[in-house]
Amino acid sequence: MMTHDTDTQGYEVGYDDAGEVQIIEGVARDETADLLDAGTQATALEGGCTASGGSMEAAARAAGKSEILDQYAEDYPQGPHDQPQSMCPAFGSLRVGLRMKRVATVLSGSACCVYGLTFVSHFYGARRSVGYVPFNSESLVTGKLFEDIRESVHDMADPDRYDAIVVTNLCVPTASGVPLRLLPKEINGVRIVGIDVPGFGIPTHAEAKDVLAGAMLNYAREEIKAGPVARPVGGKSDRPAVALMGEMFPADPMMIGAMLAPMGLAAGPVVPTREWRELYAALDCGVAAAIHPFYTASIREFQAAGRKVVGSAPVGHDGTAAWLAAIGDAYNVKPDQIAAAQNAFLPAIKGALAGSQINGTITLSGYEGSELLVARLLIESGADVPYVGTACPKTEWSRPDAEWLEAKGVKIVYRASLEDDLSAVDAIKPDLAIGTTPVVQHAKEAGIPSLYFTNLISARPLMGPAGAGSLAQVVNAAIAGKEKMDTMRAFFEGVGKEDTAGVWEGAPNLRPDFRAQHQKKLDKMARAAKAQEMI
Ligand code: SF4
Predict the structure, then answer these.
(1) How far is the CA of 109 from the centre of ligand 1 (A)?
(2) Are 294 and 392 in contact (CB under 8 A)?
(3) pLDDT exceeding 70 applies to what percent of the chain?
(4) Which of 50, 83, 110, 113 for a ligand 1 pocket mutation test, highest count of atoms within 8 Å of Cβ?
(5) pLDDT digits (tens, 9 = 90+) for 367-412
(6) Which element (helix H / strand E) includes 390?
(7) CATH number of domain containing 432
(8) In the chain, is it the N or the C terminus that has fewer CB atoms within a 10 Å radius of its CB?
(9) Distance, CA 199 to ligand 1 centroid (Å)?
(10) Whose CA is nearest to atom 7 of ligand 1?
């Protein structure tokens, strides 16, 4: 308990046992630190996206983070695309925390990372502040940062305002071994959840959502094991329910619920959940559906709770038929009830698909994890989709979708790099390129109509009859814009591109000698980094 200031002059204020933890004096830490070369130690302090992922990881391992990094390597396998080529992965977990009621989020990381993450979270409509515990090189290496974090969570832990506080270590504190696991599990009834989300351990922001969702499910599972927990605010379903993993369009869970009803089942909470009590309700479901296939840590929690997990999703005709059958099987529903659910919805899906045909060749790439599902829907709508690139890894839970797509001749690239996606666009020259920002930009430069996957495709209903007709309008409108793209391209022809883009009075002042000199510097730095790796 905290005492008044005047009573504590000359005394150290103790909050909990974590204050007794020795952070900087462990023998093992000193020995391993000695093994690190000066460059690697500097990386832990100064590194980030620009530092070599290898040296950041080496620093993190030497600082005692091997266990969590090994777990991440197993959960989120890397290669061939190891480095984030999109936004900072921590945005995924930050967004999950910010969307939860009565949950506070605190970041521990370099100010530039926190600035970027805060900016993006408000750009995407976060209505709450992001907490930040700043540090400098001294507070980082002396362990004072951990104490500052501990103090901040104690200050914030007000049970009237919060159910939980999520503290996230970004790259530098992870590489420096800031031990969030030593934070108290709970303060004044407020749960404290500490996670490491480094860019060198978590490949995509999608998978970072799973890091936090998995950590919270784990916490909730331990609470359930320890005794009775609070009922969800919305009450408990009177029918057996299916928990849904993956962020989706708000109408999709309702559509799924309607399709499950003829089997006597209901749609359960969507994970990541919007409030803490929903975690209990999700774990209470007998079956969990991995609608998005990368929720590895969350799936581990469902399985540890004895729940069955079903992959794929009810998209399009074939996908819905197979998914309803798989869920029915998992719940031992009678075949005639499964057939009743299929018969109630499959004709409507067929009708919606027939009424909203797409005619054209489409390349598809994204980092949301729903790329395979969208590709299925496009193909059933009549489109030719020769290439699908996803930044997410291949998992057991997308296997039915991959098999269906491969049977249709689709080339799927998991952990696709930007280069993979761009080469597909260049080689296929599609009528429409659906992809990430740089893919869309590249396609537009080539006069190919394009759509952003995240904003325009994954933010639409995809499930059941509602999803069946939802893509055609936007896709067909984009394909029909080809003529407009050609006109624009002709209009801008000759204005230059890349570093000669723009309006010039004379010829652009190109300096190939500067460029060659800079390239030499980069090569030299790369050689030095390689040599350090070998030491
Ligand atoms: S936390 Fe994100 S922005 Fe910061 S260095 Fe790591 S990957 Fe980059």
Answers:
(1) 8
(2) yes
(3) 88
(4) 113
(5) 999 999 999 999 999 999 999 999 999 999 999 999 999 999 999 9
(6) strand 384-390
(7) 3.40.50.1980
(8) N
(9) 6
(10) 199
Clarify whether residues 94 and 158 are in a common domain.
yes
Domain membership of residue 268 (yes or no) is yes
Examine the domain organization and report whether 73 and 169 are in the same domain.
yes
Residues 311 and 356 in one domain: no
Q: How far apart are CA 427 and CA 467, in angstroms?
A: 30
Contact 199, 88 (CB under 8 A): yes
Instruction: Verify that 454 and 481 share a domain, yes or no.
Output: yes
Ligand 1 centre distance from Cα of residue 113 (Å): 5
| Structure token digits, residue 501 | 């883009």
pLDDT tens digits, one per residue of 117-142: 999 999 888 888 999 999 988 888 88
Boundary (domain end) residue, out of 174, 203, 232: 203
In this structure, the answer to whether residues 333 and 355 fall within a common structural domain is no
Rounded to 5°, angle at Cα 371 from 91 and 441: 70
Q: Which two tokens stand for residue 495?
A: 């204005």
In a domain, 27, yes or no: no
Q: Which ligand 1 atom minimizes the distance to the CA of 48?
A: 5
pLDDT at 273: 96
**CA triplet 491, 494, 498: central angle to 5 degrees?**
110
Ligand 1: residue of 55, 76, 170 to mutate (most ligand atoms within 8 A of CB) is 170
Domain count for the chain: 3
Residues with CB under 6 A from ligand 1: 48-49, 84, 88, 90, 109-110, 113, 116, 170-171, 199
Within the chain, which residues score under 50 in pLDDT?
1-10, 24-44
If asked whether residues 188 and 178 sit together in one domain, one would say yes
Give domain status of residue 507, yes or no.
Answer: no
Per residue, what are the HEC states of 189-251?
CEEEEEEECCCCCCCCHHHHHHHHHHHHHHHHHHHHHHCCCCCCCCCCCCCCEEEEECCCCCH
41 CA to centre of ligand 1 in angstroms: 17
Q: Which domain holds residue 257?
A: 241-348
Strand partners, 186: 191
Query: Nearest C-alpha to atom 2 of ligand 1 is from which residue?
Result: 88
Do 267 and 199 reside in the same domain of the chain? Answer: no
Q: Are residues 44 and 183 in the same domain?
A: yes
In a domain, 224, yes or no: no
